[in-house]
Amino acid sequence: MSAVHAANAVPSTADAADTITTGSWRPIELAGTFDYEGNRLAYTEYGAGDDVVVLTHGIMFTRRMHAPLARELAARGYRVVTLDLLGHGESERPAESWRYSMPDFARQTLALLDHLGLGAAVVGGTSLGANVALEVAIVAPERVKGLVVEMPVLDNAVVAGLLTFGPLLFAARFLPWTVRAVGALARLVPHGNQWADVVTDTLDQQPAAMAALLHGVFFGRIAPPKSVRGDIAVPALVIGHERDPVHPFGDADTLAADLPGAEFVQARSPVELRLDPTRLTEAIAGFVGRCYSR
After folding, report:
1. Is 80 exceeded by the pLDDT of residue 21?
2. CA-wise closest residue to 47 among 25, 20, 16, 77
3. Fewer CB under 10 Å: which end of the chain, C or N?
4. Is-contact 54 112, C-beta < 8 A?
5. Mind listing the pLDDT tens digit for each residue in 60-76?
6. pLDDT digits (tens, 9 = 90+) for 193-212
């Protein structure tokens, strides 16, 4: 642990209610913050060791969504770091849309590695986080041991994404009181259940920041183009599923075909890793182990 990190690290209050025990051993959990271009970004570390995994979340979600997977990997001897990207969770939420883009989210992830004094890691994420992982592999392939890409959002998802998030953007811009009202109701829900907390975290938004986030993401570069994806040579585990227009099976299947070192796993549903995680957790742990030659 770097001296800077040790100074900033504190026991995680965001995840304290979710802490679980693996047998008689409980992974260390530390929360910290660091500065990125004048904005504070928040993260949580699970476990310790030289083999590192970094996980980022879906759009409007928070790092809490990856807490169960992070704990499971930490119990297997990995150091896992979950990051709240700018505009999410406990990180700052500026109201300027130009601050939000997939390439900049990738730079935030690399800044986290710099802050922790880490050379390279397995980088993974879900939905927005999956695309961020791809961008990291393009910007700094030497710092990526492998990619865990769950539910990527490529060309086939653009229209469905706009139809899904367009009304949210409209509400945040022109009916901000609705966003504030939903957030106020979400804050009334008691914390303590992992997935109830994930949902309430997602509903607790700030109208101006939410509008800026959605505008910046959906009117910028959603994902690396096909002409670039073939240059991503690091090992990759791509997880996709059917029956979800925002994360269509065709996008995951296409991505797996585009990446020279990809393995593909088909999930049974969008929530398998959340509600019935054993099979996919084993697949992810096995892939991370191969990345580190375990």
Report:
1. no
2. 77
3. C
4. yes
5. 999 999 999 999 999 99
6. 999 999 999 999 999 999 99
Which residues, 6+ apart, have CB-to-CB distance to 4 below 8 Å?
A: 34, 115, 117
Q: Residue type at 209?
A: A
Tally of CB atoms within 10 A around 101: 18
Q: What is the dihedral of CA 158, 134, 68, 188, to 10 degrees?
A: -40
Contact indicator for 127, 183 with CB cutoff of 8 Å: no
Radius of gyration for the alpha carbons in the chain, expressed in angstroms and rounded:
18
More confident residue, 118 or 156: 118
Place of tokens 């309430």: 200
DSSP-derived 3-state class of residue 122: strand
Q: How confident is the model at residue 243 (pLDDT cuts 50, 70, 90)?
A: confident
Quick one: tokens of 141? 């392939």
What Cα–Cα distance (Å) separates residue 187 from each residue in 12, 22, 211? 19, 30, 20
Q: Counting every residue, how long is the chain?
A: 294
What is the CATH number for 50? 3.40.50.1820
Domain membership of residue 149 (yes or no) is: yes
241 CB-side CA count, 13 A: 15
Domain carrying residue 230: 3-288
CA distance 261 to 161: 28
pTM for this entry: 0.90
What pLDDT is recorded for position 238? Answer: 98
Chain centroid to CA 217: 14
Is residue 294 situated within a structural domain?
no
